[in-house]
Amino acid sequence: MKEIQIKSFAEYKKAYQASVEDPETFWENIADKFQWQKKWNKTLEWDFTKPDVKWFQGGKLNITENCLDRHLEKLGNKTAIIWEPNDPDEESRYITYRQLFVKVSHFANVLKNNGIKKGDKVCLYMPMIPELAIAMLACARIGAVHSIVFAGFSSTAIASRINDSDCKMLITANQVYRGSKPVNLKEICDEALRSTPSIETVIVYRRTVEHTPMLEGRDKFWFEELEKVERDCPAETMDAEDMLFILYTSGSTGKPKGMVHTTGGYMVGTTYTFANVFQYNHGTSKENDVYWCTADIGWITGHSYIIYGPLAAGATTVMFEGVPSYPDYGRFWEIIDKLKVTHFYTAPTAIRALAKQPIQFVEKSDLSSLKVLGSVGEPINEEAWHWYNDMIGKGNCPIVDTWWQTETGAIMISPLAGITPTRPAFATLPLPGVQPALIDEEGVEMENIHEKAEGRLAIKFPWPSMARTIYGDHQRYKEVYFSAYPNMYFTGDGAYRDATGNYRITGRVDDVVIVSGHNLGTAPIENAINEHPKVAESAVVGFPHDIKGNALYAYVILYNDVEPSEVLKDEIKAEVSKIIGPIAKPDKIQFVSSLPKTRSGKIMRRILRKIASNDTSNLGDTSTLLNPEIIDEIIDRSLV
Ligand code: WTA
């Protein structure tokens, strides 16, 4: 989509200005470049007090017509997806836009044939294989709502997500290899399916030859179902504000939040940001850009920047099934050479882990195809930024440090590759259409962008790809995001702004900890720990970790008669792994006799965070504590 690409810094400034002065006209001009079955009649209606945001009302479209049908004439034979398997000896798959179009339409009929209709919810628990992309697009084709659960989550996590949105169908694979380890996805699903009454059908893709237990009547094989249906499937007509998908993200309290994204605005936002941030160029067929985002499709980064954004823009997007360490730590770099990757988008935690390995792993590859490097998911520290720039980009590839969230749907603050001057560890400037605000401790906006400032990051004006609600809990949506500051969306992040207006995101200011780029709420982890029959209470905080960015530290109170032991620590970790997933396992567990609490009974996490970070010189005001004596005990024992 060259027609929506900004080509110079002067143009960026002009576009930004225009987007603030007249946001509606700005976005209308962009939305016009897409394929609508019927044009919208109202560009924007919004009220952050309710909150209620609607973009392109009255517009009718189907996002898959924009990702597939629209490209057939000119790009039909262009590769849409390159799939790279976990095992380097297995063959890569190249799927053209035309092939993808056929596969999506064909599978869409499988959904229909199994009773799925517009508005029904379908849960996907799939490995990183093209069938995941096909299944999600097939849902969108017929107007079903996909809810993708990252295939590293536990059966309990799957069940709670399925039940929260009453999914009618579950799509999974029998098994997958991640590195040298098999993961029995269907078995994990079977465990979940014991407590998910809304699921009527399970479609199973056979990824390996491993035997798969199937439940007669409920479980059906992907390939057998395809044989029963036709290949043509016209796209369902969707309203711009119809739900496209639900994606769960961790909250600081209680159960995960099902963020709801709608069709029109999400499409416009993801495609516009993809085209501009990465400066993807189609070139000729010989010098076609190859874009690779290493995220899993189970996270928002995969939704927006492996599938919807790149495909709507007609790009070639890579899907990688494996892990960066298999068969060795050179895998990413080998894939870049093999597929001639031009745009590489990954997370700081991966960069740090790879930077720790002997440099020979990098040097074995040539990496000369690379043009642009991206980073997402957490703050990238300067050291990692420089390593990425020098060792991978060889000083020739602009780095785009992209700040955004599941809730924002698309990138919000980021350089445009090769256009915006970069500054190490800074996400730099807001994209056109994004109006950030830094708020001080009194809740007042620090408006002067020519003065350095540090505070909490909020957004003052709606943007098309923002989430519209939390599924089934609009009140929570309002409380979490629209109650901190009147008339603003609150991000939950802190940020610093330099005197030229560049932003650096400093990290979460709530009880969400980002571990290896994964958002984890501390409350659900505490609940999981407390499920252990010997645990009375617990508190979980984050502490800095060289590779993961943050790791989890759990303070655990045992019941009176229980002896603390290493075995018990392992059991507690296993409990968390079972209930949430291995990514949520605490790195450190300390048994304590009580927790520092205020008179109103609130745990003073600030202190626990400092102790976990080994930063006990200044613990701040502890005068409101009910039990200040506990602090010394916790510090003493934290050293063992
Ligand atoms: C953090 C991922 C610093 C931030 C797209 C945000 C970042 C949370 C960056 C959202 C970045 C994401 N620099 N921090 N470039 N990108 N974050 O929902 O704390 O998985 O609020 O979306 O990740 O994580 P989520």
From TrEMBL:
Record flagged with keyword Nucleotide-binding: yes
Annotated Pfam families: ACAS_N, AMP-binding, AMP-binding_C
Domain Acetyl-coenzyme A synthetase N-terminal: from-to ranges: 12-67
Annotated keywords: Acetylation, ATP-binding, Ligase, Nucleotide-binding
Domain AMP-dependent synthetase/ligase: 69-462
EC number: 6.2.1.1
PANTHER family according to UniProt: ACETYL-COENZYME A SYNTHETASE, ACETYL-COENZYME A SYNTHETASE 1
Family: Belongs to the ATP-dependent AMP-binding enzyme family.
Protein name, as recorded: Acetate--CoA ligase
Taxonomic placement: Bacteria, Pseudomonadati, Bacteroidota, Flavobacteriia, Flavobacteriales
GN (gene name): acs
